[in-house]
């Protein structure tokens, strides 16, 4: 016979004895609508899941929904009780019951809370815009609790405080969200308002948009000694920029270059420096902790793919060979790790794409194998995250464009798959933002060139869409500026020049456009155009905060009324500064 201690929860009076309550059962419906009350039941149970009818404690309620309207602290009758709760935040939520004195607790089943009907709009626009230049803004239908009202099926009408604004036509939203384009023409602080065409009470107004002449401008910055594309540009410790290798159209077929030169920001001029020991194009260039620059691999189909590597010494202005890689590679990535070593990953060895990876140790000058990627890939991106791991994203495996991503852990030397991108892509850019997330932008996808962009959150390993680019681009550059915004420049895109009588084969054309991504709003907006259209160029953030753009291939496709035109290519020696 068990004794009953009167002060313990679950001890009752009367004849006989009973086990004390050890936990609660909390049961509810599996789905609910935000703002609508639902019932749930709480039952005190012993260790064998028997109802403890004598439970005499007081129950307090909590929820994963911080907006939930919960019952007051309550007693149970005969060990059970029925209560009502109103959940307000969309998503998977639970309810918790806890004894206010003891550790007796219990959590409900998962409750899928769907959004309620739309009550207002959220309108998010960039904080600044250039007069006469289109920009994107987003409209989201929200319920009374600021959940996305995915069931909204109305039509949105747009107005603006700018009487000269060019606004979208009345439009529907997809799953409660939509991205639109507008052009403001009055230099002032302006706003855009979205209103339901049937229910005017459903509306929303954007943040203030400062319409002003763009601060950022591209200005010519002299010319390199040699026209080149698929070269590298590396900011040195002394503030100069090393330009190395690449392809030039001075030969046919184009051959890799061994020539290198230095850009001096003080004089805005280029001067030759020592030649590389091997001509290279589409290679990698990495600034090491000791100030030297590691050059690896590269090559060209006609001349072969390289496994060799070399070091540039800025103090002497010369290149010297160092140990060779285990595998010849082109279109691979090189990432300086937190421990000072360099991770070389993937690429093409001249025959096939490879999944292998290796590490360069500056202290020994030797490359050693490390774990292989889960997928062979080229044309991918590699981004060092704040936690020291490296995010490998996208690319292709010679047959398909990839949406998969993986993480390299230097502590274990292994790659593991992580969340997939929302869109498969190659020829894209990946930029580590100041908040630790990674911006993936543009590129070429399964169905063609892309305007989409997405963010990778290392904390959740999830990719989520962000604002769209104003125009498609691939083989472009992305540079994190000192103010936290990202400058995207140039690139190329497919164009059709159909004369109406025949279908012309799509060709690539280079772009002179540039845009800025604002992480605070998730919006891309055009900035001033570059002086020259260019793709496969470089963009380097200088110590002054300016961005140096060098070289590239300028592809143009003329219009024709008689036949499919032939595009032309011009390799650029020119450079420009964004300031």
Task: Write a short abstract of this structure.
With about 575 residues, this protein is an all-beta fold.
How large is the radius of gyration?
30 Å
How many alpha or pi helices? 0
First and last CA, distance: 86 Å
CATH class value of the domain at 437-442 and 450-579: Mainly Beta
Biggest sheet: strand arrangement: 5-4-8-9
Name the CATH superfamily assignment of the domain at 437-442 and 450-579: Kelch-type beta propeller
CATH architecture of the domain at 437-442 and 450-579: 6 Propeller
CATH topology title of the domain at 437-442 and 450-579? Neuraminidase
Which spans have pLDDT < 50 for at least 5 consecutive residues? 1-17
The largest pleated sheet is described as: 4 strands, antiparallel
Secondary-structure-based class equals: mainly beta
Strand content: 35-45%
Helix-strand blueprint:
Elements: E1 23-28, E2 31-33, E3 37-45, E4 58-63, E5 74-75, E6 80-86, E7 91-93, E8 95-99, E9 105-107, E10 111-114, E11 120-124, E12 128-129, E13 135-142, E14 155-160, E15 171-172, E16 177-182, E17 189-190, E18 192-196, E19 203-205, E20 209-211, E21 218-223, E22 232-235, E23 241-244, E24 260-264, E25 269-273, E26 284-287, E27 293-296, E28 299-300, E29 304-305, E30 309-313, E31 318-322, E32 333-336, E33 342-345, E34 357-361, E35 366-370, E36 381-384, E37 390-393, E38 405-409, E39 414-418, E40 429-432, E41 438-441, E42 444-445, E43 448-449, E44 453-457, E45 462-466, E46 477-480, E47 486-489, E48 492-495, E49 507-510, E50 514-518, E51 523-527, E52 538-541, E53 547-550, E54 553-556, E55 568-571, E56 574-578
């Amino acid at each position: 016979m068990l004794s009953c201690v009167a002060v313990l929860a679950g001890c009752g009076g009367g004849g006989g004895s009973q086990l004390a309550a050890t936990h609660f059962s909390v049961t509810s419906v599996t789905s609910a609508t935000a703002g609508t009350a639902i019932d749930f039941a709480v039952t005190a149970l012993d260790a064998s899941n028997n109802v403890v009818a004598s439970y005499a404690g007081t129950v307090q309620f909590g929820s994963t929904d911080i907006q939930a309207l919960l019952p007051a602290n309550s007693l149970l009758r005969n060990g059970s009780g029925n209560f009502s709760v109103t959940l307000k935040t969309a998503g998977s939520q639970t309810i918790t019951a806890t004894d206010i004195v003891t550790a007796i607790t219990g959590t409900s089943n998962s409750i899928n809370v769907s959004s309620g009907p739309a009550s207002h709009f959220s309108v998010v626009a960039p904080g600044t815009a250039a007069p006469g230049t289109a920009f994107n803004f987003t409209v989201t239908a929200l319920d009374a609790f600021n959940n996305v009202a995915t069931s909204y099926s109305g039509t949105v009408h747009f107005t603006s405080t700018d009487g000269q604004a060019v606004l979208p036509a009345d439009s529907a939203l997809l799953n409660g969200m939509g991205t639109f384009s507008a052009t403001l023409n009055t230099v002032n602080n302006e706003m855009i308002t979205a209103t339901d065409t049937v229910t005017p009470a459903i509306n929303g107004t954007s943040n203030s948009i400062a319409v002003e002449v763009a601060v950022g401008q591209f200005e010519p910055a002299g010319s390199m000694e040699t026209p080149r594309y698929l070269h590298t540009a590396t900011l040195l410790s002394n503030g100069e920029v090393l330009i190395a290798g690449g392809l030039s159209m001075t030969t046919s077929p184009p051959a890799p270059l061994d020539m290198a030169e230095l850009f001096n920001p003080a004089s805005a001029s280029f001067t030759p420096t020592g030649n590389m020991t091997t001509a290279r194009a589409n290679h990698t260039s990495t600034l090491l902790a000791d100030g030297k620059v590691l050059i690896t691999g590269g090559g060209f189909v006609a001349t072969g793919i390289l496994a060799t590597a070399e070091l540039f010494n800025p103090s002497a202005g010369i290149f010297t060979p160092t140990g060779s890689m285990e595998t010849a590679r082109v279109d691979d990535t090189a990432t300086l790790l937190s421990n000072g070593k360099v991770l070389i990953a993937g690429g093409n060895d001249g025959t096939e794409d490879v999944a292998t990876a290796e590490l360069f140790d500056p202290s020994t000058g030797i490359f050693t194998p490390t774990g292989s990627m889960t997928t062979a890939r080229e044309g991918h991106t590699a981004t060092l995250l704040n936690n020291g791991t490296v995010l490998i994203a996208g690319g292709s495996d010679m047959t398909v464009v990839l949406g998969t991503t993986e993480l390299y852990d230097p502590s274990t030397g292994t790659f593991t798959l992580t969340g997939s991108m929302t869109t498969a892509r190659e020829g894209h850019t990946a930029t580590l933002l100041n908040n630790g997330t990674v911006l993936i932008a543009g590129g070429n996808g399964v169905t063609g060139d892309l305007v989409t962009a997405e963010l990778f959150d290392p904390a959740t390993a999830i990719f989520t869409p962000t604002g769209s680019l104003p125009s498609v681009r691939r083989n472009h550059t992305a540079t994190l500026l000192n103010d936290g915004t990202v400058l995207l420049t140039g690139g190329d895109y497919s164009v059709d020049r159909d004369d109406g009588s025949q279908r012309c084969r799509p060709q690539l054309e280079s772009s002179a456009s540039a845009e800025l991504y604002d992480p605070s709003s998730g919006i891309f907006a055009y900035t001033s155009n570059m002086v020259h259209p260019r793709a496969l160029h470089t963009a380097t953030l200088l110590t002054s905060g300016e961005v140096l753009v060098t070289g590239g291939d300028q592809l143009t496709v003329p219009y024709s009324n008689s036949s499919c035109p032939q595009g032309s290519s011009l390799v650029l020696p020119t450079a420009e500064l964004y300031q």
